[in-house]
Amino acid sequence: MKAKPKRILFYDSDKTDYMVEMDNHWYYLVMLGAKRILVYEQPLSYVNHQPYIEVPKKTSDIPLEVRKNLLEGIKTFPYHVGLPAILDGKFNENFSNPWLAMGRKILEELPGVPFNLDE
């Protein structure tokens, strides 16, 4: 996996699913419990179906061990998503994100914290 995580936008109330903004302009829902990743063009569709999410205020709101698990999951978990190209197993992390051009302003204003492994 060449893409690197930029920010953690939010997580579910069980603290098992984390929406991570990647530097390739895609959004990965890293599901630590299910050990898989759902790839999104934009993260708001997940929020529309998950009423109980939490937005971290600072990076330390997410324990270092969880951040390490997220990074390991990004490297090793299988990918799934509702986009036809991805369902067909043809997802390439270098694909351009068509939603990005339409919603760039919305995406830039999303809350979240930088993804780092500092304490």
Which helices and strands occur, and which strands form pairs?
Elements: E1 5-12, E2 17-22, E3 27-31, E4 36-40, H1 44-49, E5 53-54, H2 64-76, E6 79-80, H3 84-87, H4 98-108, E7 113-114
Parallel strand pairs: 4-6
Antiparallel strand pairs: 1-2, 1-5, 1-7, 2-3, 3-4
Properties at a glance:
7 strands, alpha+beta, 7-stranded mixed β-sheet, single chain
Kindly describe this structure.
The chain is built from 4 helices and 7 strands. With 119 residues, the protein is α+β, with helices and mostly antiparallel strands. It has one domain. A hairpin with a 4-residue loop joins strand 2 and strand 3. The protein is globular, with a radius of gyration of 13 Å. It starts with a strand and ends in a 5-residue tail after the last strand. The mean pLDDT is 82.
Task: Give a brief description.
The chain is built from four helices and seven strands; from the N terminus they run ββββαβαβααβ. Helices cover 29% and strands 25% of the residues.
Radius of gyration: 13 Å
> Number of domains in the coordinates?
1
Overall shape: it is globular
Mean pLDDT: 82
End-to-end separation in angstroms reads 24 Å
Q: How does the helix and strand content classify structurally?
A: alpha+beta
